[in-house]
Amino acid sequence: MTKELLEQLYSKLKNETENDRKNKTGCFDFFEEKVLSEQRYNKYKNVSVTSKTMKNYYEKHVEGRNNKSNEPCSDLKNLIAEYLGYKSYLDFCYQMEQKSRTNTPLIENSKKKIINMAFCFYCFFDYLFLPSL
Q1: Average confidence score pLDDT of the chain
Q2: pTM, whole model, 2 decimals?
């Protein structure tokens, strides 16, 4: 689900009216400079991430490039999910699973149901048990 989260983030950043830089570097600079400084995200003030790190996450998880970036921490995923309009990363995972379910033919639905449930469990356990960095 990290891939989908980062794809949606980049798409939203490109479409921000205040953002006049539409390439990856510019979008993630905007994220670092504008979004992270917004007061509504004060509960995530412990999240310290640079635009370069965000770009590396995107390149690894979306574009499949081989780099040393790991999985984004739970707090960062929650922050991104809230920025995208979800309640949390767990809510994002649930909504994506529901969307996948309604867009899938009935025969394929049962196959994907197991995979989607596994993603939801992964997101849930990631949220509960992995330390926030």
Answers
A1: 85
A2: 0.75
Spatial distance between the Cα atoms of 77 and 119, rounded to a whole number of angstroms: 14
Structure tokens, 62: 């979306």
pLDDT in tens, 83-94: 999 999 999 999
- Side-chain-side CA neighbours of 114 within 13 Å: the count stands at 4
Given a contact cutoff of 8 angstroms between Cβ atoms, the answer to whether 93 and 119 are in contact is yes
79 contact partners, CB below 8 Å, separation of at least 6: 36, 41, 44, 47
C-alpha of 51 from chain center:
14
Both tokens of 15, joined, read: 């479409």
